[in-house]
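Researcher: Go.
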Amino acid sequence: MASPPRRFALEERVAKKPNPIDVHVGGRVRARRTMRGLSQSKLGKAIDTTFQQVQKYEHGTNRVSASRLHMLSQVLDVPISYFFDELPDDISGSRTPGLGPSKGFEGDPLAKQETQELVNAYYRMPEQKMRQRVRELVKALAGRG
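Model: Structure:
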């Protein structure tokens, strides 16, 4: 006699939405990865996983473990707190004192499109000497404030 089909709870039958914090962290991973000019495949190899897994992290479908988050922070050259910076209050609730944005990443200019375009254009310059002159020019212009 066959056993009756198992009935799943409504929660099991309905596809779960990703946690908003996981989505935020994934977005920060994606922003920093593209800023560094890394493909999902290259990032995956650097953190010992597949590009599909990186894709799932970036969409918030899969949660990033603490050890993997540590690896990501090293490869992407940011503090771990970077991934939680700019987390909207409606997602995180009230802020915990002392856990504000990490210094040096407030407003994260590295995540801005104009910064990405500037960095990409800079690295398309074939000559090291030309890049050095551009850096000097930018520093001089910034100092004029």
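Model: The mean pLDDT is 82.
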